[in-house]
Amino acid sequence: MGYYDDHYGQYRQEQKGNRRGWFLSAFVGAILGALLVFISIPALSDVLPYDISSESGRTQNGETAKEPTIQQNVSVNVTSQLTKAIDKVSDAVVGVVNIQEANFWSQGGEEGTGSGVIYKKENGKAFVVTNHHVVENASQLEISLKDGTRVPAKLLGSDILMDLAVLEMDAKHVKKVAEFGNSDTVKPGEPVIAIGNPLGLQFAGSVTQGIISGTNRTVEVDLDQDGAPDWNAEVLQTDAAINPGNSGGALVNIEGQVIGINSMKIAQEEVEGIGFSIPINSAIPVISDLEKYGQVRRPYMGVELRSLSDISSYHLQATLHLPKDVTEGVAVIQVVPMSPAARAGLKQFDVIVALDDQKIRDVLDLRKYLYTKKSIGDKMKVTFYRDGKKHTVTMKLERESF
After folding, report:
1. How many CB atoms lie within 10 A of CB 206?
2. CATH of the domain at 119
3. Which residue ranges run through the membrane (predicted)?
């Protein structure tokens, strides 16, 4: 028992000693930790998103500390931006009423309605851009404003190739004019709004929302309804709903700027959510020409053309006398007397294969190059085949006279 008691007493003493050692270690650790934090504060001031002040409310320089300013990311309120964009442009989107002339056998009336965009107000007149097919064959035109007011309109000019037309009206009823944006900077996925009058004026000012589905899209257009494409229209693709009556309306970005004039929609049972809009950057020079001259002033060659792909293999050899390896190009079917082509020496059955060394595959290629790359008065190098031999001439382009 004596051994146990002595051992127990020794154990108690060791336990007390351990407690004193632990307390001393904790106390020293706390002091060291406080010193470490105090030393670290100046360094942390460059890292933390707010000012660090002493308890007295003063900074190290002795100046009164400001309230801590917390930096944080603020998400964009897309819904609010869209409603602001709509408010900015909606009054400038109008209805366009096509009135057909009556005759003895039929009663005249509204043939159809579309949409338009007021883009300019000057000298008491307001100017509206819409689609060619909206105003085609109209004997009278009226503009229907947002409040239902009907104003007579005058057709200044129309272009079937770009499907654009410009109208003029009295400006006294016009409150807002649309602002044009930059369609060249538009990116897929960007939110857009289509504003117009789907299915007629009873749904005037309808708004649909979507995104840009694709840029630089090319759609073949058959202008004369002969089953063969006459033009490749470069368009913006969107999934914003565009229905009959939306034609001529505005495609608007989130800033409330018009980036396109709605024109076409693929209307097939198996296709949904594919709409097309003429990029505003492509439309602006056409709008300007129609407003000033009543027509688009394009460079003119003075030839009637046909793609080689539309000519039988027999006539490629027997009539055009082409080398067998020449399978793409355009044949000259007719040359207008005193035209640029006639002055350059082009003749019937010549086959154009390049313009300014740019390969030409068909009529669409030729028109696109001529209308988008050249201007009136420009000189153009023409490479062609005649009787199996390659030739080159230089042509000076002129303006087509109507």
Report:
1. 19
2. 2.40.10.10
3. 21-44
Picking from 359, 349, 337, the residue whose alpha carbon sits closest to that of residue 305 is 349
Residue 326's domain comprises: 299-399
**30 lies in some domain:** no
Is 365 a catalytic site residue?
Answer: no
The whole-number pLDDT of residue 265 equals 65
Looking at 247, 263, 277, 307, which residue is catalytic? 247
Domain-located, residue 314: yes
Which amino acid belongs to residue 277? Answer: S
Count CB-CB contacts under 10 A for residue 335: 21
Most confident of 99-103, 241-245, 302-306: 302-306
- Counted domains in the chain: 3
Is 133 among the catalytic positions? yes
The per-residue pLDDT for 175 is 87
Q: Which residues contact 105 (CB under 8 A, 6 or more apart)?
A: none
pLDDT of residue 370: 94
CB atoms within 10 A of CB 252: 30
pLDDT per position as a tens digit, 349-395: 999 999 999 999 999 899 989 998 999 999 999 999 999 999 999 99
Q: Of 255, 242, 238, which Cα lies nearest the Cα of 189?
A: 238
Distance CA 50, CA 73 (A): 15
Task: Single out the catalytic residue among 90, 115, 132, 133.
Answer: 133
303 and 374 share one domain: yes
Q: For 272-299, how does the pLDDT look when each residue is reduced to its tens digit (9 = 90+)?
A: 678 899 999 999 999 999 999 999 999 9
